């Protein structure tokens, strides 16, 4: 059984030939409060932020990569899903100030590097 990764957007679906280099981090929300004249601390437990990170999409066709680049650079929320890595599924946006990069490869493939900020898990 082959695995499939898709990104659904307002006008359709992006299906890369490969999904790689997924990186994500989450920032802790817990607040630590020093207590005057004590070695102990108090704390307020709060949830972690949603994920922020990047991933790479590889396309055998430059035309498909160009279409993915065009879709990813429109202001919209996108939905990522993967049968190979179900845990990466999320709704995300491209954060302000970040860049989507399209890079031709030596073997004829084209890679699109995608930064993301999760907006709904």
How many individual helices? 1
Strand residue percentage: over 45%
Coarse shape: elongated
The top-level CATH class is Mainly Beta
Question: How can the largest sheet be summarized?
Answer: 8 strands, antiparallel
Using only CA atoms, what is the Rg? 19 Å
| Stretches with pLDDT under 50, minimum 5 residues | none
Helix content: under 10%
Distance linking N and C termini: 26 Å
The number of domains is 1
> How many beta-strand segments?
10
Report the structural category.
mainly beta
CATH architecture: Beta Barrel
CATH topology: Elongation Factor Tu (Ef-tu), domain 3
Order of helix and strand elements from N to C terminus: EEEEEEHEEEE
Residue-averaged pLDDT? 94
Describe the structure.
With 121 residues, the protein is mostly beta strands. It has a single domain, classed as Elongation Factor Tu (Ef-tu), domain 3 (Beta Barrel). It has 1 helix and 10 strands. The strands form 2 sheets. Strands 1, 2, 3, 6, 7, 8, 9 and 10 form an 8-stranded antiparallel sheet that branches. A two-stranded antiparallel ribbon has the order 4-5. The protein is elongated. The two termini are 26 Å apart.
